[in-house]
Here is the input.
Amino acid sequence: INSKKHYQTAYKIASEGIVLLKNDNDFLPIDKNKKITIAVIGENAKKRMTLGGGSSELKAHKEISPLEGIEKEFNNAIVKYSRGYSSDANKNTNDLKKQALLLAKDADVIFFIGGLNKDSFQDSEANDRKSYDLPYDQSKLISQISKINKNIAIILISGNAVKTDWKNDVKSIIQSWYLGSEAGNAIASILS
Here is the structure.
C-alpha cells in the first residue's frame, strides 16, 4: 500500500538491522549540525538495490538512496559525491578513481558506500560468488583513499560476507545489508 505508516515501519526495521562492526575512537556518530565537508564515495551510494538479483528483486514504489539520505540528514554540511568505481565493465574507471581521490583529499569526513550489488556472481540467483573480495577494485580504492585521508567510514551494502583486508585503514565499518525503501534514511540516521 505504501502508506506513511508502512514507510515508518520500513525505516524502523532498516535502522534496527544495521550492524556497527568497527568504530575507532568513537568516530561515529558524526554531528549533523556541524558545518563540515562530507565526501560520499561509491557507486552503491546511488545504485538501486531493490532491482536485480533474480528472486530477491522487489517492485518498490520508492527507494531512498544512501546519498539522498545523507544529503537530507547532514543539511548543514557540504556533501559532495564521487562514484569512485563502476560495475559497468565498459566504463573507464581511472577517471572515476581520480575524481574520488581529489574529493577525499579536502573532505572532513568520508563515507565510502560500497559492497556488493545484485549483479551476476554477487548477491544474485543461480550464480555463486567467485571471490570474497569486494568487486570492481573497491579494496584498492579504499586503500588509496586511506593514504590521503584517514577519516573514513565504510558502509557495506551486501547480503553476505566480504573480505575486509582494508579494515585497519579505516575508522569505522557498518554492515547495512539491503534495507529496502528507507535504506538511505536509515543509513544516514545511524551515521549521525
